[in-house]
Design goal:
mainly alpha, two-stranded antiparallel ribbon, MetI-like fold
Amino acid sequence: MIKSTFTPQTKRKNFKNNMYIGLFLLPSFLLLLVFVLWPMIYSMVLSAYEWDPLKDKVFIGLQNYIKLMKDEYWWISLKNTLVYIVLNVPLIIAVSLIMAVLVTSVPKLSKLFRGIYFMPTMLSLVATGIVWNYLLSTNNGIINGLLKEIGLPSVRWFTSSKVAMLSIVIVTVWRWAGYYMVMFVAGILEIPRQFYEAAEMEGAGVWQKFRYITFPQLKYIIYFVAMMSIIGSFQEFDLFYMITLGGPGTSTYVTGFYMWQQAFSSRKMGYASAMSVVLFILVFIFTLLQNRVEQKSGEEA
């Protein structure tokens, strides 16, 4: 008969270790509960009510969701959000990856370039809005001034319904590319140098090394950056509020801005909560699909 190796002393030691681990995790769990789980649950409950903060709640069941499905502006905002994602996500991945490759290719100036590229991420939203309104102003902007100097017509960056969304995408990429660049830099530095040395011995150039070594080795970081960018794009509100206020017309009317407008301008908290629940479901579906694509590509590899 095999005797158990778990003595009372071992059990007490394991219990103490588990207790310490639990105590260390408790603050994080409480923060998650207070700032993520509870608001999520409360939004789901609130979505079943018609509630103006100045009046009493009225239970209406699924009426907010039915109304949402018939809301023309909701569908416009969702379409604009998807356009924003399609423009923003590939561009931010490409720019941040190129920046990471440039930074790691010049080791002596690597720290300097990292600081310069990361600086926009640390700027406040107000500063970002002021800088880009100054750069892209229709009449007095620096960019339009440069266009005039080379004989090109000025562009109504934030006041044209055809260009406004692209302008917001440019600002978004400028603001967040440095943040994602840090992730790509970390990934590139983890790639064994022997891979590049072997490729150089075979006569591979810069493009071949990037295509067959760097890019495949960064595959999982690219998936992660894409997922984070998609989630962030669904939640984006502040830039649209600071720069265009959803205009001109409804050309930059995204879900985050429409949700804020319904909650705080129209005081329809229940309706805005229904939007947040639907938005959460959409983000969850996108995440599942992206994980599925990642798993398939991993199996094929």
